[in-house]
Write a structure and sequence with these properties.
- The protein is an all-alpha fold.
- Helices cover 61% and strands 0% of the residues.
- Helix 1 crosses helix 2 and helix 1 crosses helix 6.
- The chain is globular and about 35 Å long.
Amino acid sequence: FSFLLKMGEWDTGLFACFDDMSVCIFTAFCPLCSAASMKTAFDGSNCVMNCLCLLIPCMIVCWRGTIRTQYTIDGSFIGDCCTLFCCGSCALCQMARQVNIRKAPGASGM
């Protein structure tokens, strides 16, 4: 079944917040700015508009799903909802680290 796409995993764990201290500190002190900045790094969108989009309930869940889809990471909408509800800051850090890793020079996976 060559048409089936093999799903992967996140490059870092959900609770690996301290793997990138700059992301950890930024997310701890300003989670909305961290999320907007992560989205801008991911797709080049306007950071101010991303901040405004976060006023829409569940937008961050959609962004997590978009990252999973782009990087072929296994998961579901319900899983994303639960992860962000229970461990929001950790999930934001994980998303930012994932984007940083995949956007790094010489990184594969896009």
